[in-house]
Design a protein that fits this description.
Number of helices: 6
Mean pLDDT: 97
CATH architecture: Up-down Bundle
Bound molecules: fe (iii) ion, magnesium ion
CATH topology: Ferritin
Shape: elongated
Structural class: mainly alpha
CATH class: Mainly Alpha
Distance between the termini: 55 Å
Strand content: under 5%
Number of domains: 1
Low-confidence stretches: none
Amino acid sequence: MGTKGIAIVDMDVGKLIGILNKAFSDEWLAYYQYWIGAKVVKGPMKEAVIAELIQHATDELRHADMLANRIIQLGGTPVTEPKEWYKLTNCGYDAPNDPYVKAVLKQNIKGEQCAIMTYKKLLKLTEGKDPVTYNIVLQILQDEVEHEEDLQAEMEDLEDLLKVHGRK
Ligand code: FE
Ligand code: FE
Ligand code: MG
């Protein structure tokens, strides 16, 4: 850890590490939700949805990596025990027990909307106080906004397709 790098953080570093570990837990759960969703999903437009879910899983894992690096930089330790993810998560975990494509998309849209709100709050919290964390959070937020948009576009395409076939 760099002492000056930490000294310029204009907020309680211990508290910040705790908040970053909550987001870190979210990212692992989001990663797994996408990853397992891509394995089990069934229904029309399956191939396009699987490609999107896999891409998002990769992004969530990268977010976890970015947060872990920042936590370590601040002198903290990223959550080492997966059981803790469930205790610390902001957005929770939705198991894709209904593998129908619409149900999986709906769960992941909900997850992204929670992620957007979480990172918006973190952005506000770090604004003018910790530019390095702020920048990382901003990059992640940009991805989460894109994720929501991608999933809602898939949902629209799917609904159009189902309408053509007179199905729900
Ligand atoms: Fe993420
Ligand atoms: Fe996301
Ligand atoms: Mg995408």
